[in-house]
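Reply to dn_fold:

You asked what the input looked like. This is it:
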Amino acid sequence: MPIISSVGRRAPRVRLLVAGIYAVLVLGSVTMVYPLLIMVAGSTKSGVDVSDFSAIPRFLYSDTVLYRKHIEGLFNESLDAMNMAYDSDVASFEVLEPPANPNEHLVAAWREFLDRGGLAEHASALGYTGTIVSRTVPRELRLFKHRLIARFDGDVDALNRELGTEFVTWNSLFVRPEDYTIRRNRPPEDRYAMAFGEFKGERGHGTRYVFSIEGFYKRLFLKPQYTRAIEEYNRLHGTAHASYREVHLPPRYPESAPGKVREDWEVFVRNTLNLLWVHVDPAAADVYRTFLRAKYGTIAQLNERYGTQHGAFEEIPLTTEAPTGGVQLSDWESLIAGWHEAEGGVLHRIAPEHLVVASPDIRFREWLTSRYGTLADLNRDLGTAYASMADILPPQREFHWFEFLRDRKALRLEFCTRNYRTVLDYMVFHGRGIFNTVVYCSLAIVLALIVNPLAAYAMSRFRMPTTYKILLFLLLTMAFPPMVTQIPVFLMLRQFGLLNTFAALLLPGMANGYSVFLLKGFFDSLGQELYESAQIDGASEWVMFWNITMALSKPILAVIALNTFTMAYSNFMFALLLCQDERMWTLMVWLYQLQRRSGLGVVYASLIIAGIPTLLVFVFCQNIIMRGIVVPVEK
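and this is what came back:
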């Protein structure tokens, strides 16, 4: 029967009361749901949208926001790498805008150039392999890891033996950042790098970005020296460029350019640019041989160092491209930068006129020239309006835009699930966290449902004179927080030799004073006539305990089980203190380790995943608890 009748509900005051109750309930639900939505949205974040606190992630309905997240991931969260590749000056990924009026014909020409193998493998970097800001596991790194897991049947030791690595677990696997623009970096040649190179070669062009040497020249060489304002550059160089986009890196020494321009070119090529992109004109062969004669003296000494069998210095061929490594590479670099003899101080180096920049930008221009012939034909066929071939840069920004438009659905799915996959991969492949947690929580619930009911049943059935003193003692245990007893419990368990065992986790919380107090009160409410009838029928004490007391106490037992699971599952500090061996760590300890080295999005995702088991257990226990509340009231 309702509290308020249908007639009474028609009164204005009653209607206002009901409306107020509903308003309070709605407000309460909003205050609970909205923070949850913020956390769920936060679990999809990366560096570009970490400061956005929208309840619904904006990249789900905004292509611009999704594009920013994609470009951030494609360039492995390196803003400099993006600005060099795009020849741009964007201050942050958060303000990046899609390209205006992209030229589909030029993009098609760039795609054809890439498909025909116009560039070496080291000319591009694979995206989605590093996250220096959001600190998660991006798509390509995750796929590469799963390939290695399948190849070595999940045995990380087999991986280390065959590929020469030293990974402790699969979750510690990483890929070296690819940046072959500056002088000190060289493509690795170890077996692990070869495996990654094989994987990289199978990925599409849309997952890569090509190194722009001209962009590197302007972004990290010219602009730090002359500020980002073109006026300062023009004043010092005697030029009249409208912007840095008009500044180019010639493939050869610009003899007719102003002195400062020539000086910048020579310093950049000799000392800064990676030798992968520096070639030497064959006309410098005599300079090369003179340098080797001055450094080694005799051909025998050179052959010993090089492992060759040349009969004379004149037989040594000039290596027009940088050697792969060893002493030859060191000598080649010394000849490019300049080498002084120990005696006499004679400087040996390649003349600037014999140095050639063979960058991907220049290779693309050369390919366009061979494909279209004249600049006029190129402009006509591609619908462009370039004033000179030097103005043509690889249309990577437009190319990535068209690739993005094609993959928007997959990208949204990736960003929605990436952080969750990172957490799940970590939990599955890192130690025995899941197994330890399942065993610990299961045993904790079983022991709590045996020890606590037995103690409460004894005090309820056999009215001992000291019952209330015992209850008072049990209630006093609730006055002290668990942190107070951690050190004494640790010392006691260490004395017994139980550290790093399940017994150390289970014994201290096996009996709970609050649970015993709660159960005794419930057992006292059961009718004594039930026990008297059972005794008349010859039931033993165990039968009465199990078939009467426990059978009628399912609601309160569900409460005890829920509380026990919550305490065991969320046990972090106590589990870490008693089980310092990684093999005995529970899930909470592993998640804490993950959160320490992860970004905010991964932290949110780990909290949501960690809360799911508690929610499932609560839903399971809810019906049992509600039956214990509703059924007695209805009766």
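The first strand starts at residue 124 and ends at 126.
Hope that clears it up.
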